[in-house]
Structure prediction request, 143 residues.
Amino acid sequence: MIVVLVFVLFLLPHIHGAIEIPISFLTIGLLVYLAVIMLTILAGWYTYSRTEVIITDQFLIAVDQFSFFNRKISQLELHRIQDMRVDRQGFWRTIIDFGDITIETAGEDENFLLQKLAYPEEIAEDLLSRYGNRRTTSRTDTL
Prediction:
């Protein structure tokens, strides 16, 4: 980014003499562009770092941070787990081992969905070992 900044601020006006835009407008525009990029990266890092899955001996707690002011906390009792499915769809998710876990629960509640997890198969195995429930865990890999 520094190379682009130096090019736009110092070299571009000298290469093209026909540019009639004052350097201050270019500087302000470039700084606003860089600020938007940095804020986008910061927002992505913040939501990723604040999203977590907590597994205790009795509960599964999922904290999903969707944006700065949008957070969802879900809780599931481990004894209600009936079945579990691990899904990794797509080339990049398979390569970097990211995926989703869908947990079917006892009762009429909707399925418990854990999205965009690193190492989803390890998390599913940890859930099954903590609860002692040896039901089948199906795996779906799609490219």
User: Anything to note?
Assistant: The two ends are 34 Å apart (CA to CA). The chain has two domains: 2-47, 51-142. The chain is about 40% helix and 35% strand. Residues 51-142 form a domain with the PH-domain like fold (CATH 2.30.29.30).
